[in-house]
């Protein structure tokens, strides 16, 4: 039996979305082969006159961080992502949002706490939910996805922002061969 956190983490790798976008997905946002990203969880906290802060509250808003035009977007669903969504709806059949536990939405902080526990259990270095976007972006780019398509997938209006997400690990054989050819 998979828990809702493990399923959320798995789906994050397939969608390449911000954590607030992932946690605000509703069943109605999902078509057979795509998902519509159209809302986000917002963390709100106000400063009082004595410079202390009120408690944190969360809202779900029909807006996206960053560029509003590019932020609202459709993301294709892989067959594995579709399978994960089926599992989620079995674990949370009646929730308003995909990722709910005991009638409450999962939050980015608890998502990252669970992610940290899983990384520790596996003996790997912890990477936050935002690092999932970096990792998946890099994998897609290195596999040949065009930068403009990747920008659209991420909800970026400028490819310079997308290039910030790409983390090339090492020069590959093709780069080495090209350098030898050009520089020798």
What does this 3D model show about the protein?
- By secondary structure, the protein is mainly alpha-helical.
- It is built from nine helices and six strands.
- The protein has helices at residues 4-15, 19-23, 68-71, 79-91, 108-122, 129-142, 147-154, 159-165, 173-183; strands at 34-37, 40-44, 57-61, 73-76, 100-101, 104-105.
- A two-stranded antiparallel ribbon has the order 1-4.
- A hairpin with a 2-residue loop joins strand 5 and strand 6 (104-105).
- Helix 1 (4-15) runs antiparallel to helix 4 (79-91).
- The mean pLDDT is 88.
* Fraction in beta strands: 5-15%
What percent of the residues sit in helical stretches (DSSP H or I)?
A: 40-55%
Strand order of the largest sheet: 1-4
User: What is the count of helical runs?
Assistant: 9
Characterize the main sheet. 2 strands, antiparallel
Taking the alpha carbons of the first and last residues, their distance comes to 57 Å
The average pLDDT value, as a whole number, equals: 88
Order of helices and strands: HHEEEHEHEEHHHHH
Radius of gyration from CA coordinates: 19 Å
Q: Count of DSSP E strands?
A: 6
Shape designation: globular
Structural class estimated from helices and strands: mainly alpha
Low-confidence stretches: none
Summarize this, please?
The chain has 184 residues and is mainly α. It is 48% helix and 12% strand.
Ordered list of secondary-structure elements with their pairings:
Layout: H1 4-15, H2 19-23, E1 34-37, E2 40-44, E3 57-61, H3 68-71, E4 73-76, H4 79-91, E5 100-101, E6 104-105, H5 108-122, H6 129-142, H7 147-154, H8 159-165, H9 173-183
